[in-house]
Amino acid sequence: MTSQTIMNIVLVVLTVGVGLLTWYLYVRQKIKDAAIDSINAAQADMDKVGEEKMNEAVEAVHSIIPSPFKLIFTKEVLRQLMQPIYDKMKEFAVKKYGDKGE
What we know:
about 100 residues; mainly alpha; 3 helices; about 80% helix
């Protein structure tokens, strides 16, 4: 193999790697945005409490994830990503309105 061939192979591998990383980061941001929207929507449903609301939000986000990423973003991983968002939203609500339940 010549050095030119090796450089071409390295360039292709780097290009594919950067493309996959970019796609992953894009999907991750979309998941975070969907998580916030899903948590807000679940909070509006007064018939459900705590865990039911989180399950509904996780299901909503999981349904929009592209199939190849469902291996990475399992429901448990989504729950771990969404819990800090929920906690911050709840903290804000408690500060603004006082503790009136979940």
